[in-house]
Amino acid sequence: MMTPGLSGFIADGGDPQVRDDPQAWEGTAAAVLEALAAEFEVVPERRTAAAAGDPRTTWLDTFDWRLHKAGLTLEYVPLRGGGELRLSGPAGPAGDGGGDVGAERGAAGAERGAGPGDAADQVTTQLVTGRPPSRPHPAASLPAGPVSARVAGLIAPRALVPVVTVAAPTAVYRLLNSDRKTVARLVVSRPTVIGSPRSVPLPPRLAVTEVRGYQGEARRAVRLISAVPGIRAAAEPLFAAALRALGRRPGDYSNKVGAQITAAMPAAAAAAAILLRLLDTIEANVVGVLADTDTEFLHDLRVGARRTRSALKLFGDALTGLTAEELAFFAAEFKWVGDLTTPVRDLDVHLLGFEETARALAAAKPDDLEPFRAYLEQRRRKEFRLLARGLRSARFAALTQEWRARLSEIQREHAPAARGTALRSGHPRKAAGGTAGLLAAERTRVSFSKVARRGAAITADSPAESLHDLRKRCKELRYALEFFAPLHDRAASANAVGDLKRLQDCLGDFQDTEIQIGEIRAIAAAMLAAGEAPAVTLLAMGEITAGLAARQRAARADFERRFAAFAGRDGQRRMSALLLGRYRTSADIRGV
Q1: Is residue 1 in some structural domain?
Q2: Tens of pLDDT along 417-430?
Q3: 205 bridge partner residues
């Protein structure tokens, strides 16, 4: 294991020449060995090919960093005839099959450039066979083992994808005391990020690993190395350094809005910033959709398009410089994107829940549904071809390019004020031409009023369409809260969003079950007409629709309670606190 408190060293002293020039590095390496030789005998350690293995390490995670968010790091290290998965992070639940890696893996951890705190982490390993992970691996395709058991539930329905690969040829030196006993080891690696279009060399890394019973000697070696000119303590793990070399960082993608806005910004600048962030999300997911890596790429792209349409409806008038005709055009184009993605997403929903649905059958057997699954998969392949054609079309490319250009132009026009010059006025101003704070308060209040008014009008005799319409209004309010989240008090926002989410879940169950019932009936009719529906399959599909109908009735019965919790007297007080909490000192908010 590494010496406690030691995260390793980087041998560049801030000088990129040491990183790029082998001769410059050799001089620093010689100085390190000379410093150690003052108190130890330094002997190169012979390592067999089998022990050394392939010096490449590939880090894996989902596109949206689910392992990183859980505090976990997953590496794939090639070995002869296969490889090893190494999952490091806080200890998992008892009985997960993981095991601590002891001192025999200390040198390997040092070679990878472990970061601060890593010594306390649990490392779970799993041998795997087959090719290196150059392609995505869905959770369902992972081989059985302790690592797979721990990560599968965290990543589903996403796939593991290779994030970055580093080749790090390594040399190990034994440090001997006067009795010629090995009391510590020096591990030196020369990492290079393997990528396209070129590889990126990183500064050499050094670490001291302990030998049990000789911790003092290891610490003495650390002091000697730290005094060598051109050597500095490693501030980050090798994984983070490799990503930074590629212009990335752990957790650099999220489907959350997270636009950088402030209450004092002009409304137009804030609106453009929000919409540009949504466009970033749409574009970031196109490659994953076209590769059909996992279903969440399409989900995130679709949500980005839907949020964009809601934003245009909510505060499109704040985009000064865009005519009403231009706003209508872009709104129609993003509706086209939404319509383009709907068929595949609807089929994905059926297929993602297929196993659970099949296991829940009572009268029928899971195998009875296999013709239904085959029909869904065949239909998805057809709809996916149409989706891919649309996303590769000149129309989609022109939409994203023109939309980014227009939003960037609006940002540039308002750049001086966006950098912190507030609009000063002692009188209320029109939200669309005022500050982002005013826009947020006014539009969120209006959205909440629509939800409260329409929800209060729903009775037991109201048609299903009234609940569907309320769900749309709730979604618009949820988006408004997300768009302007940086302007809200975090605690007040969490309370309001929590109640709204529970109401949305209820309305979502009601609408989704109705849609699924209609789709299953239509598919059953199509299968019957094509002669692809055995009687047992139709009976099993009928059992599914009966279960969906029961869920829909339960959601309808639960609606009144959920709505009262969100829009009742307490809910209205929470929303008022949210809208006024950050703006009490702003003259622009008076009268809102």
Answers
A1: no
A2: 444 444 444 444 46
A3: 10, 189
